[in-house]
Design a protein that fits this description.
The complex is a heterodimer of chains A (about 110) and B (about 250).
Chain A lengths: L12 H10 L16 H10 L3 H6 L13 H26 L8 H4 L4
Chain B lengths: L3 E9 L19 E4 L4 E8 H4 L1 H8 L2 H21 L2 E10 L2 H9 L3 H9 L3 E9 L17 H34 L4 E5 L4 H4 L5 E10 L3 H15 L4 E7 L11
Antiparallel strand pairs in B: 1-3, 1-4, 2-3, 5-7, 5-8, 6-7
The chains are: A mainly alpha (about 110), B alpha+beta (about 250).
Chain lengths: ~110, ~250
């Protein structure tokens, strides 16, 4: 026994679940439930163990530093980017035609 | 007795009689030991109405039940750890009765016994490293008016910068893992936890477990403190001592 206080109460649920569900020795008992078959657990575990390389696939993109970007807003951002590309094409085309590039303030503003 | 089963928490070296008196586990059931002389198993008698296959499948879907049960399971394993070398079992390891549990104990393979021996006098410490708060501020600068072509160049540069930031974070985590592993007898990496779960301001870049010799825990903690001073407040989170969950199974990697 050590004199250190037990961290049992302060351990986060994520830390505890990560260990008791995913680590620990597996001995086949008589009552068998595949923990990974559980729908809720599957979701939970995915949340727990999102790896850096999987994060992008899952649309987490944490390095974007934009936690508020929801899926709907993401679509908007993509659409916005596609529009910008089109604008850029038109701009360079009008350059070649010797015309003044037109640019409205709207085009250069970052998506909301 | 057909409506009960034996819930197993951990394999341990034999524990003194009465050492677990008063301890309660899952479903608040009293904890006792099944002992074969060389090894012991911490167990409780549980009701099949709650821990039978169908009930268990439903209960595991209930986050409240899952949290309560996971913490109770963990508390028993910790109690074992305070008494002797303890090999934690995965949540919901259930045998039909004590005889069946005893049979499992007899049939433990060589690898498991070696694993238990490797845990003598050692404890698990968890370490999480979070990304630094600076960097990646670039995208906000885009409020300035840019032409479409300039915007695209800028956008490309931002994406590259983010890729580099992610690469640097991975390299940094690798280096930190190796550095601290130097103070431990074994080390494992878990996948970093999602930011939505940690609730931290910064993403987790390293989620590791270290098996540390009890006599070297102070040295290990000093090494972690040093990292903490280098990285600043909140960048490093140390948890432990944990029962050796992360070292209970043979490393598949």
């Amino acid at each position: 026994m050590t004199g250190l206080p037990s961290p049992a109460e302060s351990a986060s649920l994520a830390d505890v679940l990560e260990r008791v569900l995913d680590k620990g020795l597996v001995i086949a008992g008589d009552i068998r439930v595949n923990l990974l078959d559980i729908e809720l657990l599957t979701i939970k575990i995915r949340l727990l163990v999102a790896s850096v390389d999987k994060a992008r696939e899952m649309g987490i993109d944490w390095w974007e530093h934009d936690p508020t970007l929801s899926v709907g807003q993401r679509d908007l951002a993509e659409e916005n980017q596609a529009l910008r590309s089109r604008v850029a094409e038109l701009e360079s085309a009008s350059h070649e035609n010797g015309q003044q590039p037109k640019s409205s303030p709207q085009e250069s503003r970052r998506s909301q | 007795m057909i409506d009960t089963a034996t819930y197993l928490y951990a394999i341990t070296r034999p524990v003194p009689p009465n050492a677990l008196d008063g301890l309660r586990g899952v479903a608040d059931a009293p904890v006792r030991t099944i002992d074969d002389g060389e090894l012991a198993c911490l167990v409780s008698t549980v009701d099949l109405a709650e821990f039978g296959e169908g009930a268990l499948r439903a209960n595991l879907e209930d986050l409240g039940w899952l949290e309560r049960t996971a913490r109770q399971h963990d508390a028993v394993v910790r109690a074992g750890m305070r008494l002797t070398t303890t090999l934690p079992l995965r949540l919901a390891t259930i045998c039909s009765d004590d005889a069946s549990a005893r049979d499992r104990l007899h049939r433990l393979d060589r690898v498991t016994l070696d694993t238990l021996a490797a845990l003598d006098g050692r404890e698990e410490w968890g370490l999480k490293l979070f990304a630094p708060a600076d960097g990646a501020a670039a995208p906000e600068v885009l409020a300035t008016a840019l032409s479409g072509a300039a915007y695209l160049r800028r956008r490309r540069a931002d994406l590259e910068q983010r890729d580099h930031a992610a690469e640097r974070a991975i390299e940094d985590a690798d280096a930190m893992f190796r550095r601290l592993a130097g103070h431990a007898v074994d080390a494992r990496r878990h996948r970093p936890q999602d930011q939505r779960l940690t609730g931290a301001a910064q993403p987790m870049v390293l989620n590791a477990a270290f098996l540390v010799e009890r006599e070297r825990v102070d040295e290990f903690r000093d090494a972690v403190d040093e990292v903490g001073r280098e990285r600043g407040e909140g960048a490093v989170v140390l948890t432990g001592p944990w029962p050796p969950y992360s070292f209970a199974a043979v490393d598949a990697s």
